[in-house]
Amino acid sequence: DNELAYIANSAEQMGLNRVAIAAHEARLSRGPAVVAASEDLFRLCRLEQARDPQFPGLLRQYPAMQARHSAVPEDQSIASYYYYASALLERNLPQAQAGLIEMRQKLPDRNELLITLALTHLRLGATPEASRLIEENPVDIASVPMRMKPAMIYVLGKTGQNELARSLAQKLDLAQYFLEERELVTPWTQR
């Protein structure tokens, strides 16, 4: 792990973020390095996405999220982010759905869990369940965390609230989001 960490740090110092990301990805398979490698990978993916809007940041982070979630399954913030990325990338959807249902039982007031669960239902083709979830649990849109706004817009649009989705999408600064998140709102940003 020391060699890969050295390569990653050296590459980052030279401005070669993608080389550093690749080195951190390789570190993920090295047991104890998972937490440190994933933190560095998350940070570098954000930097690279800011430099290149077409960089698939969430896709590149996903193995780190998966490894981190496996290493520390009780960490609710990692679990929440892992399930969110799973829904966005349409990966491990049944696992994400089960985990989100369980988390919502413990934390029913967390809007990001509700939105991610509705997104997961939609990705699984269960539009009626997503619609019911949103109808039965009204969300104060102003209180939705910034990172969840693209998913909220997608859920609203796909559950028949197109005008509200379009109105919210027009207000987003899309440069703040990963490519995969921007793609969610594309249907409601086009006129």
Question: Which key phrases capture this entry?
Answer:
single chain, 191 residues, mainly alpha, 72% helix
Describe this structure in words.
The chain is mainly α. Helices cover 72% and strands 0% of the residues. It contains eleven helices and no strands. Helix 2 packs antiparallel against helix 3 (34-51) and helix 4 (57-71) packs across helix 5. The protein is globular and about 50 Å long. The termini are far apart. The model has no long low-confidence stretch (mean pLDDT 90).
Secondary-structure element order, N to C: HHHHHHHHHHH
Largest sheet: none
Total helices: the number is 11
- Give the overall form: globular
Report the average pLDDT across residues: 90
Q: What percent strand?
A: under 5%
Whole-Å distance between the termini? 50 Å
- Structural class call reads mainly alpha
Q: What low-confidence regions span 5 or more consecutive residues with pLDDT below 50?
A: none
User: Rounded to an integer, what's the Rg over CA atoms?
Assistant: 17 Å
Count of beta strands: 0
The percent of residues in helical segments reads: over 70%
